[in-house]
Amino acid sequence: MTTYKEIKGTNIEVLESDPSNPLDGQVWYNSTDNVLRGNVGTPVVAWSTVNSLNQARTSVSGAGTATAAIVVGGYSTTYIADTEVWNGANWTEVNNLNTARSSNGSAGTYTAALTFGGSKAPPPPGNASLNITETWNGTNWTEVNDLNTSRRSGSGVGTNTAALFIGGNTPPGTNKVESWNGTNWTETTDLNTPRYASAGAGIQTAALLIGGAGGTPLTELWNGSNWTEVNDLNTGREALMGSGVQTSALAYGGAASPAGVTESWNGTNWTEVNDLNTGRLRAASAGATNTSALASGGVPAPGSPDHVALVEQFVGLTTKTFTDS
To answer: Do 35 and 57 lie in a common domain?
Structure first.
């Protein structure tokens, strides 16, 4: 009988934790969990086009996962109140926001979401920043307590009862961070570097803020108390999308060259992976890890009037636990 070493040229490794970027077909023993694991990744790690939004829009926000997402607000020829939900195959229009807006932050899931801040008339470039917060119960939006500081183009992470709103443009760009407990917003520790048009990933107590205006590559990590600068993006950019968690995130799109550049975060470093098929910025993001994400709407270039309804889904490598059964 042929052994694993004869096939692969090495014995099965014994590791305390799963490798951050396993090879397709790699097998290892996790001594912490006491299980044998292997990478049964998909043949191609890439973005693919799926069904489009019903309403083309830019400066739109999103929340949820790659198979159960919500997109909220945005801008086309006017500010948009439309909300759409994604079931993994199709988009369905549901009840509108109470206040139409763009460049808002969002957090939560497609059945329990929160959206906050953003821009409202007068039209750009004279758009006004908002402090309005609304919560979604799966059927309707309800206005709840306002942000302490009105702003747009900030980044939202977390759930509809435990969220962060990070940075933003008041104007000017701010380093303010506010925490939501399900009832009220409270100012918490500031960012090290004021910025807006960044991407966020993670939860209320463990988050990342990625890139931002001016094409910065900066990444900051939040441990629930303080922000710490960590390793930069390979390609600095603004108006990008982000998804995942603090130790397993994706940054994609934005005002960059190439415009569809995608990078994967393993908790320490950023690594370039396959680009979006259609580069764009100011789109909505959703996704729970660095192996699964959704990019919805946006514009193909800064200042472009061509707001799109295009949606792409990212599928990456996955890890399966093997057992004796």
So the answer is: no
